[in-house]
Amino acid sequence: MLTCYQPEVTLDHLKLITCQIEEALVGVSPSGCLCFGWQFECCPWSRCCGIGDFRPRTVWLGHPEKREQRYPRNVINNQKYNFFTFLPGVLFNQFKYFFNLYFLLLACSQFVEELRLGALYTYWVPLGLVLFITIMREAVDEIRCYLRDKEVNSQIYSKLSMRGNVKVKSSGIQVGDLIIVEKVYLLSFTGSCFLRTDQLDGETDWKLRLPVACTQRLPTATDLLQIRSYVYAEEPNIDIHNFIGTFTREDGDPPVNESLSIENTLWASTVIASGTVVGVVIYTGKELRSVMNTSNPRHKVGLFDLEVNCLTKILFGALVVVSLVMVALQHFAGRWYLQIFRFLLLFSHIVPISLRVNLDMGKMVFSWMIKKDSKIPGTVVRASTIPEQLGRISYLLTDKTGTLTQNEMVFRRLHLGTVAYGMDSMDEVQSHVFSAYTQVSEAGNGISPQVRKTISSRVHEAVKAIALVHNVTPVYEANGVTDQAEAEQHYEDTCRVYQASSPDEVSLVQWTESVGLTLVGRDQSSMQLRTPTGQILNFTILQIFPFTYESKRMGIIVRDESTGEITFYMKGADVVMAGIVQYNDWLEEECGNMAREGLRVLVVSKKSLTEEQYQDFEARYVQAKLSVHDRSLKVATVIESLEMEMELLCLTGVEDQLQTDVRPTLEILRNAGIKVWMLTGDKLETATCTAKNAHLITRNQDIHIFRPVTTRGEAHLELNAFRRKHDCALVISGDSLEVCLKYYEYEFMELACQCPAVVCCRCTPTQKAQIVRLLQERTGKLTCAVGDGGNDVSMIQEADCGVGVEGKEGKQASLAADFSVTQFKHLGRLLMVHGRNSYKRSAALSQFVIHRSLCISTMQAVFSSVFYFASVPLYQGFLIIGYSTVYTMFPVFSLVLDKDVKSEVAMLYPELYKDLLKGRPLSFKTFLIWVLISIYQGSIIMYGAMLLFESEFVHIVAISFTSLILTELLMVALTIQTWHWLMIVGELLSLACYVASLVFLHEFIDVYFITTVSFLWKVTVITLVSCLPLYILKYLRRRFSPPNYSKLTS
After folding, report:
1. Within a domain: residue 91?
2. What residues sit in the active site (predicted)?
3. CA-CA distance, 9 to 628, in Å (whole number)?
4. For residues 832 and 384, is the Cβ–Cβ distance under 8 A?
5. What is the pLDDT of residues 823-832, one digit of tens each?
6. What's the CATH number where 800 sits?
7. Looking at the 3D structure of the chain, how many domains does it have?
8. Are residue 612 and residue 514 in the same domain, yes or no?
9. Residue 819, annotated ligand binder?
């Protein structure tokens, strides 16, 4: 459960440099240092570290020793135990369960002389074997965890000090330290950087961050240590979108006091894109936003284990009842209470101690099979205790970005109303753009251009608008041949990288470059485009109106330096742009068509402004921005005065490319009866488009978009509107979800669970985990969460099965998950094949181990009943230990290799998975059937042995025990559906072990008797009578009422 953690910092000094850094720092956040892990813990008592009570803090730059309170250390500890608590802790965790405590008490009772039934080793050896396997497994996990923690806590990073840059371990970083992080790309304007927050909130767009202004005037970064300055920061909290603080410099003349906001912060788990950042550490350890938004990992106990535990309790109840009946039939004579304990010990095999060992070893085999499956390469099992959970998933909750999608935007469609251009006709667009600029050149040479707008001029205007209305910045880097300064001066194409606040915008600018109009330069006040003829067009940026979630549009006013023309360009979602552009009859229809194809649609428009119009707008805009009251409303009103009767230029369609085979995988899951919910931090429109594109929401399915609600009344009205719709997918935002869960949790979950698909957008990590928890509580069904980023970890750890996808967002999710895959498509095989097989095999194995124990317990009960209810063991010493180990262990355990259908059939018919959701392979019905089989076979063997034996008691032991071993081997053969060569080896090996051991068991078995013909025919008859009826019943059932899988294999 590892991930990338950094202390959270504010930007005190940001200087952009041109150095090349190690590849290991790619993707490092500008927070300055890294340490790794999910569960921070410096000691068991959090208050010693000052983290029991969160308070605001004053942090002196570069002087951690001036701190006013104790802060948690910047270390991780994912271990459950330490050196001293390991053995007591493991033993406590084992014996806190009824199952193991029961066998411990049994073993201890053998030290009491009146209760002893045989040799001590018959009870202590099996218990010791169980504990040894458990302790060794825990020790291996703890050692691995310790080595991982040690490695990441020892990572070396740069700290600014009076001696210059010094190296410091991540565990040695303190609040107040000045930490340095570098990244190779450079921005074309100084004093700011871009970072990505997808690990924190799921948003993949680049966000601009600004340093403290007064620190930019310092000559060098080291001067930060010479000034008397401090940061006052709010107490740690979970809000990742806000920050309140101040920066104060006391030795200034006059003293400087600047406010700090979210724009000055670099949270842990964010990714820097450019430059060198010097930041002061504000929060560490458990006080990080990312940690506070992450729930502590819970110890997951599988539903199958709980069901088995329930069955063992029933068996224990049966044990007590049988013991009481035996004493009651003795009329409670003598010291009857001692007799009860002796019978409890005598029939203790009713509750099989080998059950837990067999199941744990089976889980290890299932985990090994998953890792070795060549069709899902790179899959890792990190929780080997719950593989059978994968066979009973009812709800799959998945992240969007990086899980369902590749997070790579591709331009797919340009629509001008009368003509549309797809990927196969982009060369036409390129020729139109080229001809438009060629005509412009000819017009400059005296050739009159056409007056009426041609297709070429319309395409040119559309492409030009797309190339201008954005927030993209071209960044130049050295490529080994050309250095950075030369690349930036000559606009080298091979050295250029685009950075923006949205991957959509980058894809649009890359497309304009591909058709001939290239964005080659930009700063805060100008923009340069290069035409197909090599001419540089210069534009002055007069105003920018950034995209917001509320406005759903962005605009820019530019002046063409060559002509002096002022143009207002705007792009946005069709729902808002429809009322802004001039009337037309094709916008709504074409937007719907493109959206149904899963494309993100943007409407692009323009409006030409005269100098007087612009000056009037600017005066009103500046006045509105200076307002103290209702500033945002006044600014919006002024901007809206421009947003009227704009000329519609085009529609653009961008596709977020899906991961390989996402659509067929989701189809498989749907056919298997699994409901899929998409929980993402992304925008509503983006999430809806992806859901349609991935066919999470089918084409003919209605969609109910839950309107934004803030009050209880609004939530009530919207829920009523939703209730009237049937069989429709739900799309809801995180804010509305929070209101609904606050006032109408039960009603909302009831309605949502009936939906074929649910999309929750703008979800925080905490909300994702809350949704998983509510699904578990309200439905009682098993959940599986899939994600690839740090913001998915809470959800993954809360779900019954957590699956991490190793992707571009790092390994945080995969390291914290129970299972790690490299691609989403592998989830289909993981559930349909391995999950299904693990559950069915575990069910068969557990029932067979119970059957094995009940058989010998039934024989003991018959034996005691015949011999006047005496508490005397039928089999003693090695016979009783060998029965559940060397004589029957290999064939019974070989059931973990059994399968009812081939993996190809399981993938082709996912409906087979649906049968498992009802828990039929291990139910009270199947349990009762196996109990009746055990009672029948145990009674037949025991009564047959007593009827057919001649003189000595030792002959009863020989006949009954041999018949019992042969019956178990034949029952395994009866249960197996697909033979594996190891199964045959197990059967023959067990039989050989028993025959060979007869030579050494003369104390219990008459060796001469077992070589006689009399012994052989008696054993044969008893074995046939115990097994043959069951074989006949199995044949009749398969003939007249075959299960679903047998119809596919026949």
Report:
1. no
2. 399 (4-aspartylphosphate intermediate)
3. 30
4. no
5. 999 999 999 9
6. 3.40.50.1000
7. 4
8. yes
9. no
Q: Is residue 360 in a domain?
A: yes
pLDDT at residue 478 tops 70: no
Cα–Cα distance list, 717 to 30, 203, 338, 712, 771 (Å): 45, 30, 69, 9, 22
- Amino acid residing at 594: M
Q: What is the pLDDT of residue 567?
A: 95
Which of the residues are catalytic? 399
* 896 lies in the same domain as 1034: yes
Strands (E), 144-228: 156-161, 164-169, 178-183, 193-196, 206-209
> Residues 188, 279: one domain?
yes
One-letter amino acid for residue 340 of the chain: I
Sheet with 728-733: list strands edge to edge: 380-381, 819-821, 801-805, 782-787, 393-398, 675-679, 757-761, 728-733, 702-705
Taking the alpha carbons of 967, 968, 971, 972 in that order, is the dihedral positive or negative?
negative
Residue 945 placed within a domain: yes
Determine contact, residues 238/766, Cβ cutoff 8 Å.
Answer: yes
Q: What is the CATH number of the domain that holds 554?
A: 3.40.1110.10
The answer to whether the beta carbons of residues 10 and 265 sit under 8 Å apart is yes
> Do 642 and 677 sit in the same domain of this protein?
no
Which carries the bigger pLDDT value, residue 17 or residue 757?
A: 757
Residues spanned by the domain of 365: 350-373+832-1047
CA angle 745, 746, 749 (to 5 degrees): 80
Of 655, 677, 692, which residue sits at a domain end? 655
Written as six digits, the tokens of 202 are 């799921």
Three-class DSSP labels, 74-136 = CCCCCCCCCCCCHHHHHHHHHHCCHHHHHHHHHHHHCCCHHHCCCCCHHHHHHHHHHHHHHHH
Task: For 172-211, write each residue's pLDDT tens digit.
Answer: 888 888 888 765 333 333 466 777 776 666 565 667 777 8
Provide φ and ψ at 676, rounded to 5°: -110, 125
Choosing from 603, 636, 655, the residue where a domain stops is 655
Cα separation, 359 vs 367, whole angstroms: 12
State pTM to two decimals: 0.74
Report the distance separating Cα 175 and Cα 178, nearest Å: 9
**In angstroms, rounded to a whole number, what is the distance separating the alpha carbons of residues 403 and 397?**
11
Alpha-carbon distance of 713 to 716, in angstroms, equals: 5
Q: What CA–CA distance (Å, rounded) separates 386 from 384?
A: 6
Query: Does 571 show up as a binding residue in the annotation?
Result: yes
Q: Identify the pLDDT of residue 173.
A: 85
Burial (CB count within 10 angstroms: exposed 0-12, middle 13-18, buried 19+), residue 430: middle
Q: Which residue type, as a one-letter code, is found at position 886?
A: V
663 is in an annotated binding site: no
Q: Which two tokens stand for residue 221?
A: 């970064």
CA distances from residue 144 to 80, 137, 812 in whole angstroms, order as listed? 12, 11, 17
Token pair of 412, please?
């797919």
85 known ligand binder: no
pLDDT per position as a tens digit, 247-282: 888 887 788 888 787 878 887 767 776 667 888 888
Q: Is 399 annotated as a binding residue?
A: yes
Do 727 and 844 fall within a single domain?
A: no
Contacts of 513 (CB under 8 A, 6+ apart): 519
Can you tell me which residue has the tokens 């299960």? Answer: 1043
pLDDT at residue number 203 = 60
Is 788 annotated as contributing to ligand binding? yes
Whole-number Å distance between alpha carbons of 654 and 803: 29
Is 325 among the domain residues? Answer: no
Q: Does an H or E element contain 1030, and which?
A: helix 1013-1040
If asked whether residues 667 and 767 sit together in one domain, one would say yes
Distant-in-sequence, close-in-space partners of 152: CB < 8 Å, separation ≥ 6: 2, 35, 36, 37, 76, 170
